[in-house]
Amino acid sequence: MLQLTHIRSKKEDVIKGLGKKRFPDAEATISQVIELDDKRRALQSDLDSLLNELNQISRSIGSLLKEGKKEEAELAKKTTRELKEKSKILSDSMAEAQGQLEELLYTIPNIPHEDVPEGVKPEDNLTLFEWGDVPVLGDGALPHWDLIQKYDIIDFKLGNKITGAGFPVYKGKGAKLQRALVSFFLEEAEKAGYMEIQPPVLINAESGRATGQLPDKEGQMYQLTDEEYYLIPTAEVPITNIYRDSIISSDDLPIKNVGFTTCFRREAGSWGAHVRGLNRLHQFDKVEIVEIHTSDESYKALDKMCDYVKGLLIKLELPFRMIRLCGGDLGFTSAMTYDMEVFSAGQQKWLEVSSVSNFETYQANRLKLRYKDDNGKNVLLHTLNGSALALPRIVAAILENNQTEDGIRIPGVLQKYTGFQVIK
RNA sequence: GGAGAGAUGCCGGAGUGGUCGAACGGGGCGGUCUCGAAAACCGUUGUCCUCUCACGGGGACCGAGGGUUCGAAUCCCUCUCUCUCCGCCA
Length: 424
Hints:
By secondary structure, this protein is α+β, with helices and mostly antiparallel strands. The chain has helices spanning 4-9, 11-20, 26-66, 70-106, 144-150, 156-162, 172-191, 205-211, 236-241, 298-315, 362-367, 391-401, 412-418, and strands at residues 126-131, 154-155, 169-170, 195-197, 202-204, 229-231, 246-248, 255-264, 283-293, 320-324, 336-344, 349-358, 369-372, 378-380, 382-390, 403-404, 407-409, 422-423.
């Protein structure tokens, strides 16, 4: 959620930023926000002075009764009763204005960083960096959905039987490859100074709201019917919510966490031929890094996180490119996002395997996540996160890029975890 | 799931209707003392909203939400969570 003080003081910038993000009617919405806030403040002010009066009289009744001045006390009681009626009306309308204001603020996305390119479509994204050679495969090269059948390592049909589409079963060396990747990612993260977290994979609505999945992505999360819990779409949600409602000591900054969880996404309305196989699933595993920084440090940290993710891809010998998302492609809560895409030769496609974002104070504002600065003032922190990495597409790329006539070669760094060098 | 107890500030822990935002202790911070440190002593120490250029003022918050009352941390109701015992159980 954007900060009201920021909206009020930098109104023009906010409207401009929202335009970049393709938010409709930015100007009207912002005016409405300010109007509602003015209304709320006026009501608050009136209510406060009324309550002040009420409190003073109530206190005086106490002393009047002690002094035995019963009649005067009764008279005062009558006055307070009237004041109370008025205060009730005032506080109701204040709560109403507050509610409307909040609802409106929830619909407004984060403002993009000034370096975010203009644009609407993925084609407007900016490619910043490419690494590795696209493998040239022979005539018999297969996409991963054929390879997994050929070697019997991942089974979609079984998943259909047990659950439904998008819930594959990993078998034998397929399962072991996944586990190897998880171990590799977690150990690399630990070496890079991240503390490992194992969070719950169910979250309550408050957590969903704090990191911005609710109300924006309501329909994208699986929801329980008996309790108001949701299955996490990413470890970002529970891990970031660890720090909800807290004032971090500056000695504890920066915070660097890593977590491996299964993620669940309904992906409503996004199926089709372009998302075959492992490209898009309802359930998948992901290792996520989450960082918390002061505003001075957060963009340096974002760059470092990208470097870290690049390092993983290089170690896995996967050709990739790094792109900076344009305004229209940027997520609801993000101010700046870099995507990492690996080239998967079997389907001749770039696959997004990581998304690294700085949310600046957008999440922190809802989270009430602050630190005490040198003047003892509470200041909102910046939250950042990134996939490091999402498993299925990495598996897809490894299978496709490393296929040979003799089987699939396992990248060197993973062999100590898999215990085998080839899937035959 | 059944029975009982409880939820107070950074922590421990008082407070059962009237200046209680909250005693007391610990911790933290500042100071005196010291070459320095410890000890001792003195002072200080929550969050949010709001008015004010500022000094400063007002309001809200004692698990959450309602209610009673002129007045609630204190009484009543609902919910959530924690603990103990029993049951069940990876």
